[in-house]
Design brief:
- It is built from no helices and 4 strands.
- The protein has one domain.
- It is mostly beta strands.
- Strands 1-2-3-4 form a 4-stranded antiparallel β-sheet, with no helix packed on it.
- The structure holds zinc ion (ZN).
- The site of zinc ion has 8 residues, from loops.
- This is Zinc-ribbon 15 domain-containing protein.
């Protein structure tokens, strides 16, 4: 019997909240507030979150990531 265990660290982004902003770059109303966490993973399953949680605003249309809240 052969088991393959993989473990490591990975970044996990979670969309938090329902509020949507307008992107200052592409004007799409597609900017979400996301929490970015580094997690210890085992078999691709995030087990232990570690490191600081980063909060950022990400546009799902053009991919622009901003740490500041868009003005509108
Ligand atoms: Zn955009």
């Amino acid at each position: 019997m052969f088991f393959c265990f993989t473990f490591g660290f990975d970044n996990f982004k979670r969309r938090s909240g329902d509020r949507v902003w307008t992107c200052p770059n592409c004007s799409a109303r597609d900017v979400y507030y996301v929490k970015n966490n580094e997690c210890f993973t085992f078999c691709f399953i995030p087990l232990i979150p570690c490191g600081p949680t980063k909060h950022l605003y990400e546009c799902h249309t053009c991919g622009r990531v901003n740490v500041c809240q868009p003005p509108f």
